[in-house]
Description:
By secondary structure, the protein is mainly α. It has helices at about 20-35, 40-50, 60-70, 75-90, 95-105, 110-115, 120-135, 145-155, 160-170, 175-180. The chain is built from 10 helices and no strands. Helix 8 (about 145-155) crosses helix 9 (about 160-170). The termini are far apart.
Amino acid sequence: MLSKPRPDRREKRPPKPLNPVRLNDLALHYVARFATSAAKLADYLRRKLRERGWEGDGDPAIAALVERFVAAGYVDDEAYARAKSGSLLRRGYGQRRVSQALGQAGIAEDLREEVRAGPNEQRAAAFAMAKKRRFGPFSAAPPDRPLREKQLAAMLRAGHPLDLARGVLGAATIEAAEAWAEEECE
């Protein structure tokens, strides 16, 4: 049985074009809900302008608004980069993937280098990924050669250097992997 459209439903009206006040409100709402970088905020506002329209020239308004939010401390690229980098490392991603994620968020190269993980943090990230994904010594059964190659490829795709991936996957026991992860690097 097909249902007929109800006559009491109104058609959805297109949203009103943005003006400086509405744009400011959207930006304020966005930074209140999400940790963000200046570039991500600008991209979000540009997308909203495309969706809803603008009552004038939007790009200078966006640039001025983002600049004002940075000056007020609502948006801090350095704090965002440190938090995002730490989060990705704890989840087991390697430095290359962390740098790519920060680059996509619009973080400048010099700031990405400043928050770059040290060798000990990179080892901890490789260990975390192996533990989370049950690679190497964490697997239920000793991996055969094809499975070991797949695990190594997954570690490389996650952004870990080859020597770190081989180091954690080559550990014979969980205790050996823990000792490897806790070794001090120069």
